[in-house]
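C-alpha cells in:
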C-alpha cells in the first residue's frame, strides 16, 4: 500500500492537534467541545455519523465481500449492533447533551431513529461535518519521538474502509487522542463446551437485525444472557404491540450467569404459566448437536441460540508493543484493560483519553460529556493530573475496593450501587474539574432514575419499558449548558 503523510492547517495558530476516533456519541460531543481550542480531526469508519445509533441492514451474515472491508479485517466483525425497532430504555433527559435539547413532542422513551435525528441536528447546529473524515478506518496509533520535522507525540495511520476503493495508508500526527470507538462492537461469545457441534442457528445480538427475518416460528429458541438485550428480546417477542406478532416461537428458554432477577419477575409469570418461556438456572454446561445441557442438569432440544452476552473492549489499532494499555489475562480478557485513572485517563500516556467505556449508569450521556470536559481542561492545562505513581496508587485502591464487592474485573467499568456507584464516580469527576458544578439539572432526574432502578431490581423488564416518566419529569426543565460541569 502507498503511504501518504498529511499535515493539517488551521486558523487556530499554535493550538494542539487532537485526533478523535469515532463519530458516535462520544466522538461528536468531543468534536463540539474541542473544535474551538484545538485542531481536530474525527475519523469515522462508516459512511455516516451516529456510531451504534446508525442502523444498517448489513451484518457479517449478509455482507457481499467481508475481505474488502478494512474494519472487518482489523476487528473481526462489522460496526453496528443496532437492531430494528429498538426503543431506548432511559428517558430522553438522560440522553440530552449540553445546549442541545430534545423537541417537546419527543416521547420520553423514543425509537432509535428519533435519537439519530437528534444527533444529526447536533452536528448541523455546531457545524461538525467539516471535521469528520468518513469511511476511514484507523489501523495504527503509536507513540513517536519528537524530531525537527515532527513535534507531535502520536502517529495515526488510517485507510479507506472499503479497500477496493482506495488502498493508500495515510499518516497523520497529533498531540492528543480521544478514543471514542465505542464498546458495542466486539461481541462476546462464551466458549461453551461443544459450541462447535451445534447443528442449529447460533447468532449474537450484534448480528441480529430484524426478528421477522429470522426463522423463529415454531422453534425452541434459547437466549443466553440475562440483562438488557435478553430482556429486550423477550419483551419484543411477547409484549410489544408493534413487534410481538412478528415471530411465533414454540418456546423460549433463557439462561445466564445469574437468573435471579428473571426468576423473581412478575412480568414474565403469565408466559411462564403458558409454557412459552422457561428460565434455566446454572447457565450452559454443554452444547450438543440438537440440544443444550444446563447447569442444573436438565437438557432441552434447541433449534436456535441467541447470544445476548455483551461486548468486549477492543482497540486493535493501539500498538501492543508500546503497552499504552494492556488487557487483563486472568479470565476476563476483553472486559478489562488499563491502567486508566478515573476510568478515562491513560496512565501510561496521559495525552490519550478513553471516552464512554463506563457502563450501567442512569444518566449515561451526561457522564460521557463530563469526561470530555475533563479531557478538554487537561488539554488546556486548566487541571493537572496527579503523578503517574499517584494515579497507579489510586487505581490500586479502586481495584481493592472493587474486589470487596465479590465481582471479577470484567465488572470493573460497570457501576455497582453496592460498591463504587455512578454517583461516586461523578463526585470524583466534580473534584477534578475547575468548572462550576451543575447542582440542579442532574439531581432533578434522581426520582425517575430511582423508579426505573426499583423495577430493574425486581426483574420487571416490561414495566421498565412501560414506565410513565411523566409522573416524575413533567414540568421539569432539563436544560444543561456548557457553562457548568
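Residues out:
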Amino acid at each position: 500500500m502507498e503511504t501518504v503523510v498529511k499535515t493539517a492547517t488551521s486558523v487556530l495558530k499554535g493550538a494542539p492537534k487532537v485526533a478523535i476516533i469515532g463519530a458516535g456519541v462520544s466522538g461528536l460531543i468531543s468534536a463540539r467541545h474541542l473544535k474551538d481550542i484545538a485542531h481536530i480531526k474525527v475519523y469515522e469508519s462508516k459512511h455516516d455519523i451516529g456510531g451504534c445509533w446508525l442502523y444498517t441492514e448489513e451484518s457479517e451474515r449478509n455482507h457481499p465481500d467481508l475481505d474488502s472491508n478494512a474494519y472487518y479485517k482489523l476487528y473481526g466483525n462489522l460496526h453496528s449492533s443496532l437492531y430494528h425497532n429498538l426503543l431506548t430504555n432511559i428517558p430522553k433527559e438522560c440522553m440530552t447533551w449540553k445546549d442541545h435539547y430534545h423537541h417537546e413532542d419527543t416521547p420520553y422513551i423514543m425509537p432509535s431513529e428519533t435519537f439519530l435525528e437528534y444527533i444529526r441536528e447536533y452536528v448541523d447546529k455546531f457545524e461538525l461535518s467539516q471535521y469528520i473524515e468518513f469511511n476511514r478506518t484507523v489501523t495504527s496509533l503509536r507513540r513517536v519521538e519528537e524530531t525537527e520535522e515532527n513535534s507531535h507525540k502520536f502517529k495515526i495511520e488510517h485507510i479507506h474502509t472499503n479497500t477496493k476503493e482506495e488502498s493508500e495508508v495515510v499518516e497523520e500526527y497529533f498531540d492528543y487522542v480521544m478514543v471514542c470507538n465505542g464498546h458495542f462492537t466486539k461481541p462476546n461469545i462464551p466458549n461453551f463446551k461443544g459450541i462447535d457441534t451445534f447443528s442449529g442457528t447460533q447468532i449474537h445480538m450484534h448480528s441480529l437485525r430484524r426478528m421477522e427475518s429470522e426463522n423463529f416460528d415454531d422453534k425452541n429458541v434459547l437466549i443466553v444472557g440475562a440483562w438488557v438485550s435478553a430482556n429486550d428480546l423477550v419483551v419484543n417477542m411477547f409484549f410489544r404491540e408493534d413487534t410481538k406478532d412478528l415471530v411465533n416461537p414454540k418456546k423460549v428458554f433463557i439462561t445466564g450467569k445469574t437468573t435471579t432477577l428473571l426468576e423473581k419477575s412478575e412480568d414474565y409469570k403469565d408466559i411462564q404459566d403458558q409454557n412459552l418461556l422457561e428460565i434455566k438456572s446454572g447457565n450452559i454446561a454443554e452444547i450438543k448437536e440438537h440440544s443444550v445441557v444446563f447447569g442444573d442438569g436438565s437438557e432441552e432440544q434447541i433449534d436456535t441460540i441467541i447470544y445476548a452476552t455483551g461486548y468486549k473492549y477492543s482497540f486493535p489499532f493501539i500498538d501492543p508493543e508500546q503497552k499504552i494499555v494492556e488487557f487483563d489475562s486472568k479470565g476476563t480478557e476483553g472486559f478489562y484493560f488499563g491502567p486508566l485513572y478515573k476510568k478515562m485517563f491513560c496512565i501510561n500516556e496521559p495525552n490519550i483519553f478513553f471516552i464512554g467505556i463506563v457502563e450501567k449508569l442512569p444518566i449515561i450521556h451526561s457522564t460521557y460529556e463530563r469526561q470530555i470536559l475533563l479531557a478538554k481542561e487537561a488539554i488546556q492545562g486548566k487541571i493537572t493530573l496527579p503523578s503517574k505513581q499517584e494515579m497507579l496508587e489510586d487505581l490500586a485502591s479502586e481495584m481493592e475496593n472493587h474486589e470487596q464487592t465479590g465481582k471479577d474485573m470484567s465488572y470493573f467499568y460497570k457501576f455497582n450501587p453496592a460498591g463504587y456507584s455512578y454517583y461516586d464516580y461523578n463526585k470524583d469527576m466534580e473534584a477534578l474539574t475547575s468548572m462550576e458544578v451543575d447542582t440542579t439539572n442532574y439531581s432533578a432526574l434522581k426520582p425517575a432514575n430511582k423508579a426505573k432502578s426499583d423495577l430493574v431490581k425486581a426483574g420487571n423488564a416490561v414495566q421498565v419499558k412501560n414506565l410513565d416518566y411523566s409522573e416524575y419529569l413533567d414540568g421539569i426543565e432539563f436544560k444543561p449548558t456548557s457553562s457548568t460541569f
